[in-house]
Amino acid sequence: MANALLPMSAGFATCMSLIVSIGAQNAFVLRQGLRRHAVLLVVTICVVSDVILIALGVGGFGTLVTSSPTLLTICTAVGGCFLLGYGFLAARRALRPASGLEAGTGETRSRRRAAMTCLAMTWLNPQTYLETILLIGSVAAGYGAMRWEFGAGALAASCVWFVALGFGARLLTGFFSRPGSWRVLDGVIAVMMVSLGTSLLAGA
Prior knowledge:
Number of strands: 0
Structural class: mainly alpha
Order of helices and strands: HHHHHHHH
Mean pLDDT: 80
Low-confidence stretches: 103-108
Distance between the termini: 26 Å
Helix content: over 70%
Largest sheet: none
Strand content: under 5%
Number of helices: 8
């Protein structure tokens, strides 16, 4: 059990670092939460989508990578470089923040349209596949037989984040309306991503 804590913690930190940022999906979930409309539906779509994508990355891609030591080294190095790059982008966002998010900017009151919008933001976004299947899959592959523990940690992070964002949004109306709040988050993301990326490259 103790041996599983390290990959689970790394998976949790990696996934949390990727999803905690200003983006179309998070902005939509936050606004739905602030309006208290179709929150459970939207959160469920986000979590289930991540379950599918992360499982594909950890299972399919992870198995392929671990069968080839050379490919494993390459993917580990690519994952490390991507994490570093993502960390530097987060640092840039922290230094040059975007405007804060506002609640209820014209979102539909239709549950069906809310679901379709959430699905589109999740499945039609190329970055989603890059982060889940490629990045999380390649990082998970570095843990070999423990990659599913890494995946479990990543899934836990996804669940915690979307539930907190959707159902906790009503408590954060004032907080997330200020750019400074996202600067703090992006600063934390930058530190975590750079640390994880450096660790991966050191072991590649």
